Amino acid sequence: MTQHPPTGPGFGPPPPQYAPTPPPYAPQPPYAQAPQPPYVQAPPPQPAAGPDFLAVDKRNAVVVDASGVAFETSGLTVEFRWPEIRGVHYRASPDGKALMVAVVHMDGRFYECVVEARPRTRLQEWFPQLAWVLGHYRPMG
Description:
Layout: E1 53-56, E2 60-65, E3 68-73, E4 76-81, E5 85-92, E6 98-105, E7 110-116, H1 121-137
């Protein structure tokens, strides 16, 4: 049988004369629990209402709103949410008859939609509207 050396001061529990006195036991009232409502799945959060931009011709459309940018081309719709958009660029077509809008995706892919402006003066109306809406959702700086 191995003997261990006796414990010296500072090791083990304090001697009984130095131990703190436990507080007297006082029964506590049980916690009341509020009734739990049945689980109802919350609807997905809707983007806050804000300005939007819409340019449409016979075949194509560009929409910019609180959720992001959407292109419709010949009946197919592609939506880009703001968190996945690196940049949005726009300009007039080389002949000045259409609005060209491009979305640069976060991974570098590039998507473009061209909307014909009829009458041609509509193009000059679209530029300030589009600039204002994009500035609202994607301020520079």
